[in-house]
Amino acid sequence: MVALPAQLLTRKLREARHAFAERHRARRRQYQPGLRTLITTGKTLLDPDRAPSTTLGAVFHEINAHALQGAGERCEAVHE
Predict the structure, then answer these.
(1) Does the pLDDT value for residue 79 go beyond 80?
(2) Which residue, among 68, 80, 74, 65, has the nearest Cα to 31 in the 3D structure?
């Protein structure tokens, strides 16, 4: 009599963990492309080997501003 509720509880816990893990993986897949773009941009902007006289225009030439804007929008949309 006691074994059945314990087995049911174990199964429900396993199902809940699986559902949570699947949602977590789906979120990561949504974030990954945008996050990679944002990290690359941050590294480009903070590169210690970059000359202090580098202009913002030169940096924009190195990075894809359109991709950066899209990455920010994707991350914001998924975060909401």
Answers:
(1) no
(2) 74
